[in-house]
Amino acid sequence: MATTRVAHTNWEGNLIEGKGVVTFDSSGIGDYPVSWPARSEQANGKTSPEELIAAAHSSCFSMALSHGLAGAGTPSTRLETKAEVTFQPGTGITGIHLTVVGE
Hints:
Number of strands: 5
InterPro entries: KH_dom-like_a/b, OsmC/Ohr_fam, OsmC/Ohrsf, OsmC_Ohr_Peroxiredoxin, Peroxiredoxin_OsmC
Strand order of the largest sheet: 1-2-3
Radius of gyration: 17 Å
Protein name: OsmC family peroxiredoxin
Organism: Streptomyces sp. SID7499
Largest sheet: 3 strands, antiparallel
Number of domains: 2
Strand content: 35-45%
Pfam family, one: OsmC
Structural class: alpha+beta
Distance between the termini: 31 Å
Mean pLDDT: 96
GO molecular function: peroxidase activity
Helix content: 25-40%
């Protein structure tokens, strides 16, 4: 059965000086501020599309690896996956690096 997850962003202003709020509708975990400086400079307590991609990638990879290991007869007891997403202003995402530690 297919599932649909929903999030939305409200943005005010232009790219450089504007600001927005990402809302996670499906989970109800809250509202998170976003801005261009949070993407291209320091996060300063704000999230970014790249951080959200890192969260999605690390959690999806952990679930898939856990399933694959269990299917091969070597289930893990714990997996920690760190995703680092590199963003270059003017170019976009230039890399995603995963580091996995498991037991």
